[in-house]
Fold this sequence. Notes:
6-stranded mixed β-sheet, binds nicotinamide-adenine-dinucleotide, 16 helices
Amino acid sequence: MKQFHNFIGGEFVATARTFEKRAPVDDRVIGLVHEAGRAEVDAAVHAARRALKGDWGRMSVVRRVELLYAVADEINRRFDDFLAAEIADTGKPKSLAAHVDIPRGAANFKVFADIVKNVPTESFEMATPDGGTALSYALRSPLGVVAVVCPWNLPLLLMTWKVGPALACGNTVVVKPSEETPATATLLGEVMNKVGVPPGVYNVVHGFGPDSAGEFLTRHPGVNGITFTGETRTGEAIMAAAAKGVRPVSFELGGKNAAVVFAGADFDKAVAGITRSAFENCGQVCLGTERVYVQRPIFDRFVAALKASAEALKVGPSDEPGVTLGPLISAEHKRKVLSYYERARAEGATVITGGGVPAMGGAFAAGHWVEPTIWTGLPQTATIVREEIFGPCCHIAPFDTVDEAIALANDTDYGLATTVWTSDLGTAHRAAREIDVGLCWINSWFLRDLRTAFGGAKASGIGREGGVHSLEFYTELRNVMVKL
Ligand code: NAD
């Protein structure tokens, strides 16, 4: 049986307490995860502190950047190992993991290495009251030991999105991967050792949230800052933990994202784009669309086209040719998603397609599959129009005017992302300005340039990461004033 150990100070560390990791495709136990207790979390934070004060802290930026490039190259060299690990943990289609998760996992190290190599700091010359001169300049220091708490939907990609910039800026990290996806974070420990990243720079502690590694880590006084991706409710708990010692947080949280389709949009592109944004990764993407608003003249045609498109998706195991939808991550998440499917019916939704569980044969019958699902007919107050489901589903409602579309898109506690489908530039820009989100895609979805700001408004997050914006969280600027 595969064992997932903690990675502390460059060593793989077993613990007496383990829990089972089950495969989403067939619910088979595929590994035992060694749960970190308070002692292991403490050891990891201390190892990170030692590295910060030692080799890593003293290393030149040039050498640090070389090492981060080496990390990316080694991930690419072991591409198949990372791919297999991610697929085993998540059950996602091989085509998706091979084109998104693993390449982005490697790229996250290079992008931020390039940024820190080239980042300037400010300096000013100033006249002083005594007729002299002073020179002020800024020093950029790492934040310190950073706790990185991750979700399970894009495990390597989202973890390295934080670890890449944190290390590039000279911090050391203790990562708490999701209990559902221990594999790639553990594998990255091997990569760190192989390329010569000093022990303690990258640490991994496995476990759950409350009363387990997640809580022990975020409450640890030796942690200088917390970067977290996950549910908004978890963010609230972590923020409370961070209040002790007023430690900074960077949060990428939940969403209930709207797509707005105007009558003049390229119809086929809008249907294809929303098929991706609603169903990719089995709907387990924070940026995914769960609310679709369509201008009334094309509403019926759009509903019919999205139904046909959803029904053409192939649900199945990762490497079966043509599969576009894998299972949900766990039995618990399947129960949650199906409870929303039930709730939609109870609240009077018209089920356009799906709403249940697909028939899967053989061993796969025990997997966590659900059907891609589309509803219409519910008011804005309905539960499935308000709460994040994180499954392959969306509700479609009509609108008449631009004002109404913007008001509907904004009628949510969340503010992560939106997609706007239109051929009118003025409408596109107005929607981008007035829909209160961190990310707005026009005639596209999940098109990313890693140099740009990423994050959510309202209950979808705190702060922005990406490009130079990551430096604002992972470094502290110190002003030095020199009287000449
Ligand atoms: P989650 O909040 O349940 O768990 C995320 C991580 O937090 C896990 O590692 C978990 O063990 C840990 N955790 C849970 N409770 C904790 C606590 N009290 N203290 C410390 N750690 C704790 O989220 P999830 O179910 O893994 O992921 C899905 C959620 O993540 C969705 O809401 C989704 O929208 C969100 N998400 C957001 C983004 C984004 O960029 N905004 C990206 C991906 C996922």
